[in-house]
Amino acid sequence: MNRKMLFLLALLIGGCASIPSDLQTRTEQTPLPFSATASIEPAGQTVRWGGEIAKVSNLQQGSLLEVVEFSLNSNGRPVKSDNSGGRFRILIPGFIDPAIYAPGRLVTALGNFSATEEDQVGEQAYVFPVLDSEHLHLWPEIKESSTQHCNCDPFFLHRSLLLRPIILVPDE
């Protein structure tokens, strides 16, 4: 009995959420938070930032993702909200397909804060922190269930409850 409990406990602990291995830092150094980029000069600091892809550009020196920053949960997945720290760019060596890395998809990148670039968002001037990516993690899309064909009867989903209760109301 104790071995079974120990095995189940090991499975439970091993199944807990953690950051994917490709996004884990190799050193004990804590990655620089995105909010610190406003006050720190880029010097190759290790960073782990994530957010929603806003734009994809394939250039001669590699691919460039423009990302709307969102805070990361304990898994390293961006949590979309109405608050963002701003935008940043991820420089990726090689080609990435804009059909897969499409605007609206969530990504998390591990790399180095290497530079800032002045550019525009629409017609507004903006300074983008640039992350030289070592690893890029594209998060799978979460499909929400359709409620168009909802049979909202609470007894619908369970076969043993298909015999619905009959409620008799006595006449007074």
Describe this structure in words.
There is one protein chain. With 172 residues, the protein is mostly beta strands. It has a domain of 98 residues: Nucleic acid-binding proteins (OB fold (Dihydrolipoamide Acetyltransferase, E2P)), CATH 2.40.50. A hairpin with a 2-residue loop joins strand 4 and strand 5. About 3% of the residues have low confidence.
Would you identify the CATH architecture of the domain at 43-140?
Beta Barrel
Gross morphology is: elongated
Number of strands: 5
In CATH, what is the class of the domain at 43-140? Answer: Mainly Beta
Strand arrangement in the largest pleated sheet: 1-2-3-5-4
Organism: Nitrincola tibetensis
InterPro entries: OMP_Slp (IPR004658)
Protein name: Starvation-inducible protein
What is this entry, summarized?
The chain is mainly beta and 172 residues long.
Jot down its keywords.
172 residues, 5 strands, 35% strand, Starvation-inducible protein, mainly beta
Structural topology:
Layout: H1 2-14, E1 45-59, E2 62-69, E3 87-92, E4 106-121, E5 124-138
